DNA sequence: GATTTTCTACTTTTT
DNA sequence: GTAGAAAATC
């Protein structure tokens, strides 16, 4: 069914690749075949910095890979090229495609994620920075644990200063390249002062543990380059071409890193700035919440005054109908550079809309429609994807799909490497690899239970602090009886220390899989799970077995004479987890810098940096793909179902009052719409249970932003608005009342609900102020714009989004709940 | 120190 | 509805 979209673009890629992959290198001109004029410009541009603004489906990857191939064909050595992506998958794909175009010599390029690239540099330059090259890499969970410990030691109220919040703040500071001292200096309120305090202690503890978190990897590389001109010059001399993908997702630290790598002017020794090419689309920036700043792409021309900008607006993916919808939605975002995607693929099918009574009805519609499309031969299961805003929305679909026997696969959710058992097992390995890794050590201290409780742990921790020794050292002293502890605790600790020594001995002479096996056996971890009658524990055992397989594959691949490509020797049917962990392109000239002789370190680094192991199903599995909108970025499907388009669900509740967040949600809608090639469905539900309670949600404002003429409504909201509901909550019918009347109606509804929850009196009066978010039994979700008057005369003007802006009296019992 | 119970707070998440 | 943490109890 994809014939409609088999445009010349796709064919020519193949021919350029196959025709020119010979040893002598491809003919540069052949690489331009089948490119449109803008793409061609981007490929051949030389000299000044280049920004390629690549709309969805405009052939961004083609431009990048062809540009690299073109450079290579023009005499640039592969070793002079650095290409940076955000995911390992994107890196592997890019390398593979360049290899297809120019052959194996492309393997000498550095194509990696920001983080891998930094690890590589940091390990190599460890001496310069005075750190040990076998540092551990802490992920978000490790770093949150460490922050919890630090906050507890500082006696912070864990309610007022939750570890999560502290972690976010510290991460933001690092993304802005601010040190603990900077943070302390500019702290303006209580939270910021505490954050600065925690940050300082946390950073000290990281260093003590010989560890870096993800943000450190970037920040410390920047510090390295800025603080050591000779090092910076070395890399600048070496990498003459730097390419950055998904530039809209870079944060400030990454932006500075790129600038330092490339250089802005010639060095004293005459090294000119490298050539920079960044590719991205501000409209697809959906990671601001992780620190990405759209500013970097918007201000590129200011950052690099010589820059040339090329716009790619021709889309090779979707029908014009789909693109028109995407354009119409994204146009509502303020302050954006206007960009209009167009296609010559024709209008295609209208966008199908559906309004379900509830989420089950919505899911049933989606399932039924999928069934029909496949039945009628319009699509295969593979062609179809279902998107939702949050992971928990997948459940309804799974239920219906199972009931109807539709094959599906949920992408994302709890990832393999985030599972408790996997992390526990890896923590053991990490302690064996880096005994100073306090977070991992404390994680496994009493896992499985061995009689070392909180009490004993804090005594040891306090002792470590007092004596200014590491936790590991204090633990050994405790085992030797040099720390005041009950005998029982002391014995337990002694047993644990002996166990670690024993495992250490195994680690010294075995490969990773064997060490892992020894850990699972000798700690009794596996035995405990096997003895359990909790069905979840059976899955845990399976996951651990899977982890052993991953380790074994890893060792085998490394042992086999220098693998040449990412996919060599990998059973295509093997779990994606395995594939993701295998060493990628280990045959470049720098392989010697890597911890090649130490398979444990190498394995741990791999699993830390390749956490997106549950990667996407390869096509051909014959399943429908279910995923969040975020996960969908970068993918495409012939048929796409965008579900849950309700204010409060999508856009998410938390974004309703914040213009910046709302804009990001809208970009998410844009991403979702533009994933579809031929058919797009958009649906919502009138009622949906959230947090155990049924909620009525108004239509998503994004839904109303799609021009009516592009839509074909399969089912719309019934005339009488909200349907009769027998539950103890909700409105009774959609009568068009005045504010006062609706307050009366709400009284009844509210009363019934309230008795069940917090009692009647609570609901009689409500205090609101501008910015508050509320739900109204009739109007749904809204944001308070302003309040007027006091006491019984108080009123509030509330923006209910698509339900309009309403002024309500706040007397008696308005059917309003403050969120 | 372990186990059970209660409470609470809920995005998205490339590394 | 549920997972993770804190508090209460054994």
From TrEMBL:
GO CC terms of this entry: cytosol; DNA helicase complex
GO BP terms in the entry: recombinational repair; response to radiation
Enzyme Commission number(s) from the entry: 5.6.2.4
Q: Coiled-coil segments, which residues?
A: none
GO molecular function: any one? ATP binding
**What sequence ranges are listed for the domain UvrD-like helicase C-terminal?**
320-634
Key words of the record? ATP-binding, DNA-binding, Helicase, Hydrolase, Isomerase, Nucleotide-binding
Q: Which Pfam family, any one, appears in the UniProt record?
A: PcrA_UvrD_tudor
Can you tell me which residues bind ATP?
54-61
Question: Which reactions fall under this protein's catalytic activity?
Answer: Couples ATP hydrolysis with the unwinding of duplex DNA by translocating in the 3'-5' direction; ATP + H2O = ADP + phosphate + H(+)
Every copy of the UvrD-like helicase ATP-binding domain together lies at: 33-319
User: Which residue stretches belong to region Disordered?
Assistant: 1-34
- What EC class does the entry list? isomerase
Q: Name the family.
A: Belongs to the helicase family. UvrD subfamily.
Protein's recorded name: DNA 3'-5' helicase
Organism annotation: Saccharopolyspora thermophila
